[in-house]
Structure formats: C-alpha cells, structure tokens
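Hi L., both proteins are below.
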Amino acid sequence: MKRIQPVILLLAAMTLFLFYRQSHRQSFTEGITRAQTARMLAWTVCDMNKDRAKSVEPLIDVDSTLWYADEITTVLAEGIMKKDGDLFHPIDYLTWEEASNIADFFDISLSIPVFQKRKPMPLEKWLQFFDRLLAEQDIDIKLIKKEQKILAVPSASDTLDRWQVKTDSGIYSCEGLALEKYLDQTVTAYIYQDQLLMAVPADHQQAEIITASTSVDTDNTKAAEAPSESFSQNDPLPAASAPDIRVCIMNDDFSSEAHKNLRMTSDAAWQLTFHNKVIQYPADEVVELNADDFSEDGETAEAVPENHHCMTILSINRSCGNPSYSGRLQIMRSKDALFLINILPTETYLKGVVPSEMPASYHLEALKAQAVCARSYALSAVKNPKYDFADLNDSTSCQVYMNQGTDTQTDLAVDATACEVLSSRQKIVTAKYFSSSCGSLSSSDDIWGYPDTASLDTHMTERLETEPPGIPALSSEEAFRNFIFQPAENTYLESSDPWFRWQTELSMAHIRSNIAESFAKRMSADPKRFTVLSSDGTIDPDDISQIKIVKRAESGVLQKIKLTGRNQELTVSGEYNIRCLLVPSSDTAVILQDKSTRNGMSLLPSGYFFLEEINDGEQITGYKIYGGGFGHGAGLSQNGADTLAEKGYDYREILTYFFEGINIENVNTLE
C-alpha cells in the first residue's frame, strides 16, 4: 500500500471518528446503540462478574477504558451479539436484523418489517422485545421497571461520581446515559441492582446516550487536521441513519466488478481501517491499494471521510470524470483483484442514480417518476441481492449510479418522493424502465420470460404508446414493417424523438464475426435461450449464410431468430441476446430519423426491428436493419415520461400510464 504520512495514533483516530454531533433530542422512535444494547443485556441475562473476566479478541473501535468495554466483552463472550471482523461499531444503532439475531440466540420469535432489516430498531420496539425476552427466561432476573424522579445529576451535585444519578429511591450507576436535562422530571427507569440501564421520560423522549472522552497526546497529532468540533464526554451519539444499500462499483468500462488497483482520496480529512489499524489522512491525501496489500482472500479495508464528505476514486473514470461517493467505501480482495462496495443510505444513493439514468433537464414530474422507479428497483434489490457482498452494481445491468454528478433538480425529485415506491398487494413492484419507445410497449414476459415459465410482472403490459394506450397487433412481419415505415402521424407520444426510428446495416462477414466473438459467451450466460444443431455439436461461424425471423411478440419486439448454414442451425431467443449478436461494427453508423448518427454501440439500439436482405445475385451479403426505440421497451419510457410531463401529467399519472394496477405508497407502510 502506497501512503503518505499516517499521522494519528489509533486512540486519536477513534476519538476523531466519534466527533459527529447531534444537536436535537432523540425521539422514542429512534434507536438504541449497540453499546447500550450490550449494557442492558450484560447486566440482566449475563453474569457480568463472571463474563467480564473472559477474553475476546481486541476490537479496533472499543477502548478498554470506555464505559461500555466490559459489557461488550460480556455479550461477545456469551455469543449474544456479534462483531464485524475487528470492529463492534458501538455507536451504531442496533438494526432490526441484529435484534433478530439476538432473538434467535434466545430462541424467541421476532418479526422484522419488510425492507427494515438494516434500519435502526426503534427504542420503543427494542424495549417491548426486551420486556418479552426477560419474561421468557428461566433464570431469576431481578429487573425493576418503575417510575423514578431524577433528583440530582453529577453536573449539579458535588456528592455524585461521574456516572451516578440520584432518584427518589436511591443512587444508581448510569453509565452511558446523560440525564441532566431530566433533572426534577419523572422517568420510567429500567433498574437492575445498583444499575440504571435505561430511562424513558414520560414525554417519550429517549435519554441521550454518550461515550466517555479519551485524552489525546496533542504532541503526537500535530500533523492531523483537527475536526471543526471535538467529541466530548457529554455529547450524544450520532442520530440513526437511513437504511443502507450496498453498491458494487464496476471498473472503467463497466465490463467487470474486479479492479487491478484502487486510488482514492477525499476533499476532507478521512480515515482508512485496514490491517487492524485506523489510519487518519488529511484532505487530498492519495492512497493506492492493490491485491498484494491484502493478506488473504476476503480481507477488507474501509474508507470513511469526515463530516459527510465524499471519497473520490481516481482510478475510475466516468462521464462526470473521477466519481465521488457518499457514505463509506469497502474494499475487498478476491484472488488477484479488488472489489469496491459503496455503502450508503438508499435515499442518498438515489441522488446518484436519477441524474445518471435521466437527464436532469427533463421536467420535474418526469424526474419524480424516475425517482420512484429507481427506489422501487433498489429496494427490490435489497430484498434479493445480486451478489453475496452487494445488493446491485452501478451499471446498466442494474441501475447506473454516479456516471453523472448529482444535480439540484434531481435531488429535489428524490426528496419530493421520499420513501415512495410502486406496490401491489402490499409488496414492492420491481419497476423497469428504458430510454425511448418506438411507439409500442412490451410486457415483462415479452422481454424476460421463458416459454416454460409462468407470467412475470403483470403490471408491464403490451400497449401502443398513444393517448389513451392502444392494443398492439404487430407479431406479423408485414404488420410490423408497416408500423415502422408508416406510423400514424401525430399518434405516438415520442414520434418526434430522434430514436423513434433508426436504421443501419450489417455485412454477413460482420455477423459471422459477432457469432465467433459472442455466441458461445451469451449461450454460457443464458443457456435456455440458445440451441445448436450441427453434426458434431460445434459452431462454425463461417458456415452461417442467412438469418430468419422465427418469432415476434404482439408488441413487435423480436423474440427469436434462426442463423442457418449448410451444416448447422443456431437459434437465439431473447431481445438482449439478439441485440448482442446483431450489433453493428464500430465504424458502421446507426442513422436516426433526424439524420444524426451514432457509432460504436455495444448493442443494437432495441429489439424492435426487421431485416431486409442485401443480395449479390443469389448470395446474401448482408442485411439492412430498420427499427425504432432505444432500450428493452418494457415499463416506463423515460423520454415518454418527459413528454407526458410536458403535457401536464404529474408523476403519479405518469407512473399509472406505464404500469397497470399499481399503487404508489410509502415503503414503510408495506408488509
């Protein structure tokens, strides 16, 4: 690892990490930290006097002098709570998933709300679960839960020690609780022997939870930039954050998740947790990592900037330049490569998706519709992750993220639709979208279904993109050809868009080259959609002499083609596979209806096209391709959404135009 001037000792770095400050009182609906959870469990269901003597592996973020150190050691020794490698994350809020793990340890059922597993568990829900946990234990737990009046606190009394509180029934230890603001007020207290474990005021405001200060030798930390405000022993812990999503960041050309090396920096001071150390770097310091810097497969490092700034990856180039990522970055070694995962709140993630998927210049209502679709897609991915280590990636195979920088208009669209998703029967609908329509929309089955599978998403249906939507009948070659060549004037929403109609051509030599390069690769990725009939079961691209259309959906999208030769017959199904095999060469232009051209495409623009032979005598030398639209053609057309917004549709009306039988609801109200 190449690095410049690691200048902060471990203890100082831990203190800087905790400097973030919360200026408002936490509500009863907010969470309980992992440290406070450990304290409540350690003093009730564990034997603190016995278990605190047990040893566990040292934790980077738990200093032995802090008030919660013994409690964390106790719950780890018992196996009630788990650590994350060499970290415990004591100041993070307990999530629903972590609470469920605790419930499993005690063989108690705990229902987790859908899509809430990585959200903080509200304190109110934790206390309800904690009450049930204690009630169901066989051991005699003498926990008292009763109302107490706070009579004295250390800051207002010379007789109390640092972590003591006086109530109308005695003096108790209250490590980790700042109760000054409740002086002379009545609280509901959880008391075990001489320990006051939690206090919930009558107005349902949570007692502030704090961490002890750690002294730092300033002579050893002069090279570090001091934070704008330090974290003191009476500061509350950071507020609960939004649910996180894990985004795998692809390489430069989006061809792979693997990176040879990663170079990173930040415009603010930042820290890298790596090799059991927390290393603090000043702003603009550049660090480079490669696989050789890691000891073994699966080892990770984590980069976090101060004060909600971003980390910039200098080894990646996007349309916006070197991308900058909010949240934190996890770097993981796998074999000889590195994988980069951006972990951040979902709503923040969406602010990097919407401008990368839809031009920020589009009408606000169209951007709102895009935000709802992107949120629906993202939360569906959280429920069904693409990888073990990440929910989705940042490419067109999922949702493009941070290819363009954030924008105030798209930020507004995300904020205005916060938490809203497409739903049906109390479940999130996976909202698909694409760039531009040819005037006909496909069903989910048309694009992604297999002949032997049940219907997929019934909310994306075949329809003509008209007002109101019509029913397409474009499965015959004649009907589709007429639709492409002679669309009814001023009938279709996007008839003025350049991509509404396009054309290109392919030589047979280039088609054979595509088959040689891509057929086996695509067949390996999607074997159900390919067949090979030849004498020896092999593929001979040079033998292919003709393309035949086998099947077209009523929406007009091409679903199956046959590639034939003297000695073989290859079939290809699925619009994506067909577009891969019939992509023009890099020097062959796709000509749009406004006569502009595009070169170097990685796919044919869409699956809505027909073929016209180019002949030299009786020999087919190539094909002219006439088509329309850009993208797969199912779900929301982004350009169509902007057209509807221009006509005065609001985002809800836009969404119900493209998706049948859906609701637009707050995700927190769903099952």
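That was the first. Here is the second:
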Amino acid sequence: MGDIAASVMHNLHARRAAGGEGNAWALVRLTGRLLRPDRMTLRPGSPQLQTPRSPSACAPRKGCPVTSASMGVGQQDRNGGLSLRGVAQRLVGTGEAPPPTAGEQALRFVAEFEEHGTGWFWQTDRNGRLSYLSDKVARQLVRDGAPAVGVALTELLQVDADAPNGERSLAFHLSSRTTFSEYSVHSVAAAGKVDRWWSMSGRPSFDARGNFTGFIGTGSDLTAARQSEAEIKRLALSDSLTGLANRQRMRLALDSALAQGTAARATSLLLLDLDRFKQVNDTLGHQTGDALLKQVAQRLLRAVGEGGLVGRLGGDEFQVIVPGEGRRDTLAEAAREIIAALSHPYFIDGSSISIGCSIGIAVAPDDGIDSETLVRNADLALYAAKADGRGVHRFFREEMLLGAQGRRQLEDDLRQALAKGELHLAYQPVVSTRDEKIKGFEALVRWTHPVRGAVSPAEFVPVAEECGLIESIGEWVLRTACMEAASWPGEVRVAVNVSPIQFANPALPALVTSALAKAGLPPARLELEITESVFLHETASSERMFRNLKGIGVRLALDDFGTGYSSLGYLKTAPFDKIKIDQSFVRGAAIAGNRNAAIIKAIVTLADTLGMETTAEGVEIQDEIALVRELGCSHIQGYVYGRPMPADAAAALLGQGGGQAEASGFKTSRSPRSTMLRWASILIGGRRAQVRIRNLSATGAMIDGFDAAAGRDVDVQIELLEDQLVPAKIRWAKDGKAGLQFVEQFDMERLNAAKPSRILRKTG
C-alpha cells in the first residue's frame, strides 16, 4: 500500500499545481498521511476537512468535478464520523469526470480494501484521543451507545500482556512518541461483551514545522486467528478420548501449583491406575475399553469436584492435582472415596463390568519440591499399593525410594550378569513315589553376584520380568538345560520354567525347537512348567500356543497348582501332562488335624481323572513321603531327596545305584514351636512336680527338670494355663529332659490370654 499511496500523492500534487485545491485537496492531504486500506471515518471538525482559506478555491469550475456537495463532506455516518467511501466514488466515478488518474484509481482501491479487507486505519490527536478510526472497528468499540472517535485510545484498547512485546503498553508509546509494530491488542470489553483481538502498528506524526500532531497507524483483525489458536491449544492440552487434561497440561498445572506453594501451603499429587482394565480390553475389545475410560473420567470428576484438577496420562493411568491440601487424613479419605466410586459396576452395551483402582500419593514439599520428584514418588507409592494387593492407596515413604534404587541397581547388575557368566543352573531331583527312582530334574536359575553373593530368585526374577530381561534369561536357561540334560541317561527328563511373558511370545515354539535340535535332546525329555497366571488373559493365541508346543512333542506341566487362577475351566482344554501341587499344601499335611491332606487327595483325584501325573513340591520331612504316596501322588520333589545341585553333581547322582534316590532329613513332622522359659506343674501318677517348659507347640512340649525314672509312654497332665491341666504322654526322656505329646491339639492362642505372672520369659 505504500507504493499506491506514493502514486496517489504524486498525481494529486499535480492536480494542485493545476489549480485544483478545495475539498479534493483536503482529501488528498488526509490520504497522503493515512493512505492505507478500507473505509475511513473522520471526526467532524477534523483539521483535514476544514474549509480552505480561499472560498474561491471551492467554487465549481470546468475541469474540477468534485465539489463540497458532490463529495458528501459534512455528512455524518451512524457512528458520528464522516464517510469517505462516497468521496472516493464521486472523485473517480462521476459521469462528468474524465478517466480516473493513477492516484484516483489508487484511492478507490484503498477505499475498497478498507471496506472489504481485514485491515483498518486509525489516527489520534496530540492528546491520544482518536480523531479517525475505520468504521468497521469503530462499530466494534462502541460502548453504551457512545462513538469510539473522540475517546482516548488507551481506554478502548490494551496490549496483550502474554504477547512477546507485551511488557510495553500503548500508553508508554503514546507518551514517549515512539513507533510500535504489530502489537497484539484487545478491546477493554464491557461486561458480557466478547473481546476482539487485533494486530496494531503506529508511528508519531509531525506537521511541516516539526510539531507533534498525534499518532497514525494501521491494524488487522486477529480474532479468528486467536480463536483458532485457543482451540488448538485446548486440543493440545486435552485428552482426545475423555476430555480431561492430558499429560502436558497436568505437568504445566503441577509446575504452576508448586511454584505458588510454600512450606505452609502444600500441593498433593494422586496417581491412579485401574485394576483389571487390560482384561476388559482383551475380552470385550478396545471400543468397550474406550467407553469404560470415558465413564471412569466422569466418575473421577464427580469424586474430585472443584478441589482438584483431573487428568489422563494415557492408557488406564490418571492423575489428580490437589493444590493447597496436605493433610493426610483428608487425602486418605478422598482416595478411599475415589476407589469406591471407580469400583462400582459399569454397564456398557449390555455388559456389567467391574474394575478396581490403586492410588499412590505424594505431598509437596515433604515428598518433593519439583514436579519430576513428586511424580516419581507418587509412582513409587502406586507401585507399593499394587504390590499390597491392589484396590488400596499408599502414601510415599522414603524407604520406597531406597527400595526402588536397590531394584534399579539390581537391574543394572542383572543386565551384566548374563554376559559375565554369573548365572548358572541348579537341578533338583524329581523322584517317583512308586520305586523312589529319579525320573528327572527341575532346572532352577541361580545368580552369584560378585559383591552381594548368592541372590535369591524371588528377588531377581521379578526384576527381570519388569525390565524385559526375562526372555533373554529364559532363552539362556532353556538352551543350557537342554545341553546339560543331553548327557543324562535316556529316560531322565529335565523341567524348565516358562514365564507368562515367554508364553505370550509367538516365537517360543521356534525357540524350543532350536534348543532341542542344537542339544540333540528328544522332545519327550523336555518338560515345560507353566504357571496358572497364563490363563488370566486366556485368548485364542493361548490355545494356539498349547497346540504348537504339543506339536513339537514336549511335555507340559501346570506349576504351583491351587495358588493362582481360581477357575478350573482351563483344565478341560489345556493339554497338560502333569500337575505340580504347590508346597503350601504339602507343608504340614502329615500333622494330625491339618486339612492339607484332604486338599492333596482332591487334586490327585482330579488329575487321575484327567489322565495327568502329579508331583508334590516342597516335601522336606520323611513322614510326608509316606503320606504323599498314600494320597496317590506319582512324584515327589523337595529337600527330602536333595537340594538343587550343579549339573555334574546331578549326573553323578544318576550314576549311583542306578538313579535310586535316598531320603534324608527329619523323620517326623512337627508343628511350629515357640521357644520359651516358664514354670509349670506336672501331675505324674498322682504326684505333682514343678518343671520348666523349654518349647511348646500345638502338639507337644519339651520340658526339663524331669525325673527320667518315670519312663516313656507314661500318661501325665501338665498345667499349661493356670488351674487347667492338659493330658499328655511322655515320648522320650533323657538327661533330665523329656518330650511330651498332647492327647489333643492345644490352641496356642490361649497362651496370649494367660496371666503374665505365669510366664517367666519369652525368648522366641
């Protein structure tokens, strides 16, 4: 527009030289200063439209078609200004006028641009009051019916404080008479009126003598762009599925809350994870899962209310920020309410769905003063809540961080252990109950740390599953076990544990085939042990995996039966060759009154009906061998026949006596005992004596200060509780000590109610 303005000025200067002054020249003098887009409004009395000094200059004459009347000068528009559109049209469009000059044509373009384009013009007097404003903007700034022209510019517009150049206001530039460019401004809106946004530029104006006359400038409408920008920002900070705040907005909100917080003003962070959500996705589909997440979001909003900001981080993980709240009792109650709200059944497409929720809580500033630390600690608390059985909340504690750091160090060491050869296999015998011959070994991975020494599998296997190392470790175990078992006698099998993560990998059958082929081990000699947890997400892929493994010819064993998945339906289709009874059912089964023997019998009956073998795990006492054999188990595994041993020791054991196993260890089972020192009265053949109880269990006691002459298998009565005699029989007596077996089991809990005066000292 600058070139067009110059052209208009050049041509109209030529008209002036030819004698054309009057109102046409007044217009030229204005447009020469303002010449930019669109429709313009002049305030009545503006100096640019004052009558020229020479009245004759305004008289109509030939060759000067523009007159005061024809230009419409003095005609006010509806906003109190003067319209120049008619001026431009008459100047270049009358039938009497000659063809328009370049300047006249440019003036028409300017008027059209101001009328229909996005730009506009403005001008102030030396006091900062608007003397000119494009009509379309003037209409937007009318307040209470009063026109915008004549009002101070700073009363109508203000700079966006968030803009890059927002630190300097319009008032600053107007007072300092400095140029500004593309300032983002918005209207100082009246109540209930929507703000408009513009980009605005301006420069100071001076007359021929250098006197400041005001500001002159241009602008363009930014409202649509700002609204679009706001919507893009909203979408960028919102979760597209639930409409909740997304991870980025939650991070910004947490940073802001922590920046405003003090030692006296806490900020709390709740991290939520849905329990059993993956099962919903796997069984009912992702569409149902998405619908469930939407309902969860609505319940969360209702449960939290106005007190906090709720967001979804992704998947089934949510977050709640509670500014200004650090009281643990209040937060605990809120967490319980959230868990209860999310645990009620959901009804989606005719299905009733039940899930749960676990929550970890961290409170600033005690648990962290920055967002990264607070989120990490809330995540550790959530990890603890899930480890404690899910459906609960846990607050962060410092020991959680120490435990996490220990797990991280363990993970780093474990990554190197495989490469450095720190892992090795130990083999525990599996013995037939029929002839006590070794039928196989279970391969158990062991880790000898160069600094920590032996690390328990219960400690490092879960870490391997969490950090993704379990598949590489599992492959090493499988290949090593097959190679070492290949040198054993032909009928001896080797059992290898397969984690649920390995079982879910479609490449497992190919890996098994490769390990067998490389070792030269017949498939029938390899037994894969699979836990019940693989059935938690039973799908068509699980059935396909079973078929593929059985197609190879390997045996399948169901490990730790009775401790995991509660349904027995999978036994109808899963092609297991063996059920391994968990040691929790075996331990104590030989003790009178224990119900474990009945459970073992039920499992054996089920396995026999399905044509499966059974192995009783964790057998440690010799009298348990006879019981397990009597109950019908086909195999025994446990310390009673040997602890896990290296491969060469296993090979040597097979070479001794044709692989015959030999039981060792305690011969009889006994109840757990409490060591103590207390006096008690004992009644023997009508004679009362004082003895000391050394240890006590539900089935008997060891005493000292006893007269061995009384002999064995003698009936006695001992006062375990004040004035209450318990019948017993002497089973052994030696060196002033004796072992008593109670006629009936004694309830150990009754000792807790005993009078303290009767107990001298409890030592364990």
